[in-house]
Design a protein that fits this description.
Elements lengths: L10 H14 L12 H8 L3 H13 L3 E3 L5 E3 L2 H4 L2 H6 L13 H23 L2 H17 L3 H19 L2 H10 L15 H5 L1 H12 L3 H12 L7 H18 L1
Antiparallel strand pairs: 1-2
Helix pairs in contact: 1-3, 2-3, 6-8, 6-9, 6-11, 6-12, 7-8, 7-11, 8-9, 11-12
Length: 251
């Protein structure tokens, strides 16, 4: 991967993004040493302060380990990086991090968090929290058929569910999933149409939560949050086989 001099503005961002992408693409392997600050400054034609700031950000993401007065070593992002790495990666970073699947991956993560949050909210949510969920379903219905407005209402509804679960870790993860360049909240509504338009399904979810039916709330939440996801290959294959068997039986 060829590194290029930085533009006059945002020089630290430029250094950060190029070194990040070089690491994720495998140009710098885990345990390898990055060039020294002096060498990086010369390559990018920037001062060492900009390089130092970029390295600090890379270290915060779990991509490098900066040793005081020593070499900067590359870390394996699969072992050390967190969700912040996905949030910071708005363009393709090579095969090492399949950015093309990040929206799908985060929607799958949101489905897992949302389903368990619905279960917990049903079991231990306060009456006020459950009333908030019902009110957010009304907002979703009122926003129809405007998919953009429904998308905003949908995020607010699920925030109420996650908040009502009382799980702070889920709430922090949800905040990450609906912010940033690749956020679920910013996914084009057409990719979530099946979920957004199912107002009746959201009312059923609200009813299950209000009634304290944890298992039913979990199942309904998962059904809603996976409605727009492509079926796994095995599931599609199984469905095709089932249709073929049915066709054979009828003939």
């Amino acid at each position: 991967m060829t590194l290029t001099p930085a533009p006059r503005s945002n020089v630290s961002d430029h250094v950060f993004a190029q070194v990040r992408d070089a690491i994720l693409s495998g140009a710098y392997l885990p345990d390898a040493s990055l060039p020294s600050e002096r060498e990086l400054a010369a390559t990018f034609e920037v001062n060492r302060h900009a390089v130092r700031e970029a390295l600090r950000r890379l270290q915060q993401l779990g991509l490098v380990k900066v040793s005081q007065g020593g070499a900067t070593r590359v870390l394996d992002w699969r072992l050390h990086a967190g969700l912040d790495l996905a949030m910071s990666t708005a363009i393709s970073a090579g095969d090492a991090l399949p950015v093309g699947t990040l929206v799908r991956d985060m929607m799958e993560m949101r489905a897992c968090i949302g389903a368990d949050s619905a279960r917990l909210c049903a079991l231990r949510g306060t009456a006020a929290a459950k009333e908030q969920i019902a009110a957010r379903v009304d907002d979703l219905a009122a926003a129809a058929p405007d998919l953009d407005r429904m998308g905003e209402a949908n995020v607010a509804l699920w925030r109420a569910v996650v908040t009502g679960s009382g799980n702070t870790a889920y709430l922090l993860a949800f905040n990450s999933l609906v912010s940033g360049a690749l956020a679920v909240g910013h996914v084009p509504p057409r990719l979530r149409t099946a979920e957004l338009l199912d107002v009746a399904g959201h009312r059923l979810l609200s009813d299950h939560i209000a009634g304290g039916a944890g298992d039913l709330a979990e199942a309904q939440a998962r059904a809603l949050l996976t409605a727009s996801l492509p079926a796994p290959l095995s599931a599609r294959t199984g469905s095709s086989a089932a249709r073929k068997d049915s066709s054979t039986t009828r003939s």
